[in-house]
């Protein structure tokens, strides 16, 4: 790697007043033709391009991004990474991603700040606890780490939480995945962009795909704001914008696009060193390396493409967090934002070929796709390179909405991103 980051390069560049660093990725003009075009320069699109070049030797690839890298959900999410999904298909897909996370900074030579500080899902009713026990057992059978915690064990890990019996929703226990945690979201986009660019992938920003070029049921290329670009294979990874993109090709996706919000507080001394989620009070919180509380909840219920949400959702979420952590009521909130998430009826992704030959979609990750970023790129690259699903994403094809083989992960998704 020409631009390898190391202690030595840090020293060398420091001595040269940091004026000799190379740009992390190239910004070339688009060529008229590529072997593969990836639409969407979020984490998933960039990871797809990286693994196409690295694992399959397909290097004549362009990633087309309508804005800037990571301007979509990739750098708008709350960065929770876990793999404790209920059903075998989902558990194996997310666990594969988890294993890639564990070696990602080394693989990319870029610190994605993956921090395995554990993820806790609280139970507040007997039924919650039954569901938690069922999920932890299913996870363990799939080789995924997870334990059920008692209120006392929760308190040992999170002393600030109110676990007293006088709360509106008393905490009865939790599931805990110690290998879960958080990562730095924009670093994930930058790391994959740098790795892909180094392998020869062209990353074209400010280049919106406005139509598809299709002849005799085969994709031939795309029309963009920078002109027509041709390729025999096109992979779309556009999250909340997947439906309009599919419409250009006459493909209907079973997706709804909803706003999802998050907000962060002022920076504070370390006080919370794990991720805490509760479906019942409807909120979750972690503390970033900068010291901010990172807070989120469920989707806004209306459909739309504006990257913002409604104030009452923020109010409701803040109330939920204060219910769990009364001392946070005195913390000032700093900023809020929204992203557009693409929700599928079974709360599982779609990684699939389509009725148009050479056109593939990777979408439907809804509120929980960040954790899958490396795994999603890995299996989608395989699907595009071989025109055939990887064994891990076979069950996530579009035809499951015709056959009825849905993978219902609503229990593991929703508020729990
Ligand atoms: C507030 C919030 C919190 C979340 N929290 C979590 C979490 O804690 N854990 C978790 O696992 N997941 C979380 N998610 C979900 C996660 O962010 C997404 O599932 C994931 O980032 C999707 O990645 P992506 O690369 O597919 O999408 P994106 O990063 O959105 O990338 C898609 C890209 O496609 C581009 N694009 C769209 N249309 C076109 C076009 N026509 N031409 C060219 N480019 C186009 C967009 O500009 C965008 O950059 C959260 C999401 C939000 C909004």
TrEMBL record:
GO terms for biological process, alphabetical: tetrahydrofolate metabolic process
Catalysis performed (reactions): sarcosine + (6S)-5,6,7,8-tetrahydrofolate + O2 = (6R)-5,10-methylene-5,6,7,8-tetrahydrofolate + glycine + H2O2; sarcosine + O2 + H2O = formaldehyde + glycine + H2O2
Entry keyword set: Cytoplasm, FAD, Flavoprotein, FMN, Nucleotide-binding, Oxidoreductase
Cofactor: FMN; FAD
Compartments where located: Cytoplasm
InterPro entries: FAD-dep_OxRdtase, FAD/NAD-bd_sf, Rhodanese-like_dom, SoxB
The keyword Cytoplasm belongs to this UniProt entry's keyword annotation: yes
Listed transmembrane segments: none
Family annotation (Pfam families): DAO (PF01266)
Single GO molecular function: sarcosine oxidase activity
Enzyme Commission number: 1.5.3.24
Main localization category: cytoplasm
Domain Rhodanese: 36-80
GO annotations of cellular component type: cytoplasm
Stated family: Belongs to the SoxB family.
Protein name (Swiss-Prot/TrEMBL): Sarcosine oxidase subunit beta
């Amino acid at each position: 790697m020409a631009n390898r980051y190391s202690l030595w390069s840090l020293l060398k560049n420091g001595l040269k007043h940091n004026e000799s660093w190379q740009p992390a990725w190239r910004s070339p003009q688009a060529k008229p033709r590529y072997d593969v075009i990836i639409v969407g320069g979020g984490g998933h699109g960039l990871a797809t391009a990286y693994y196409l070049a690295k694992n399959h030797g397909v290097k004549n690839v362009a990633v087309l991004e309508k804005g800037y890298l990571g301007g979509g959900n990739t750098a708008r999410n709350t960065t929770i990474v876990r793999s404790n999904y209920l059903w075998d298909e989902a558990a194996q897909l997310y666990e594969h991603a988890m294993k890639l996370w564990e070696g990602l900074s080394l693989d990319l030579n870029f610190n994605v700040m993956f921090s395995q500080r554990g993820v806790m899902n609280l139970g507040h009713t007997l039924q919650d606890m039954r569901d938690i026990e069922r999920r932890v057992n299913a996870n363990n059978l799939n080789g995924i780490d997870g334990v059920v915690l008692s209120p006392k064990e929760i308190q040992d890990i999170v002393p600030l939480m109110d676990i007293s019996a006088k709360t509106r929703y008393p905490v009865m226990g939790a599931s805990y995945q110690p290998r879960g945690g958080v990562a730095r979201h924009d670093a994930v986009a930058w790391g994959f962009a740098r790795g892909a660019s180094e392998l020869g992938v062209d990353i074209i920003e400010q280049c919106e795909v406005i139509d598809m070029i299709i002849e005799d049921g085969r994709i031939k290329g795309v029309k963009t704001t920078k002109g027509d670009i041709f390729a025999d294979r096109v992979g779309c990874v556009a999250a909340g914008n997947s439906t309009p993109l599919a419409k250009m090709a006459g493909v209907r996706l079973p997706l709804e696009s909803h706003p999802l919000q998050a907000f962060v507080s002022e920076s504070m001394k370390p006080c919370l060193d794990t991720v805490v989620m509760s479906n019942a009070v409807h909120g979750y919180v972690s503390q970033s390396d900068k010291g901010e509380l990172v807070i989120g909840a469920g989707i806004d219920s209306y459909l739309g493409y504006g990257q913002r949400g409604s104030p009452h959702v923020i109010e409701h979420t803040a109330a939920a967090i204060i219910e769990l952590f009364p001392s946070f009521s005195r913390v000032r909130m700093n900023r809020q934002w929204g992203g557009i998430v693409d929700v599928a009826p079974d709360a599982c992704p779609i990684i699939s070929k389509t009725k148009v030959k050479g056109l593939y979609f990777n979408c439907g990750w809804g509120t929980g796709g960040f954790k899958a970023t490396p795994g999603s790129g890995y299996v989608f690259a395989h699907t595009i390179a071989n025109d055939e699903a990887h064994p891990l994403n076979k069950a996530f094809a579009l035809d499951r909405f015709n056959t009825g083989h849905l993978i219902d992960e609503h229990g593991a998704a929703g508020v729990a991103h």
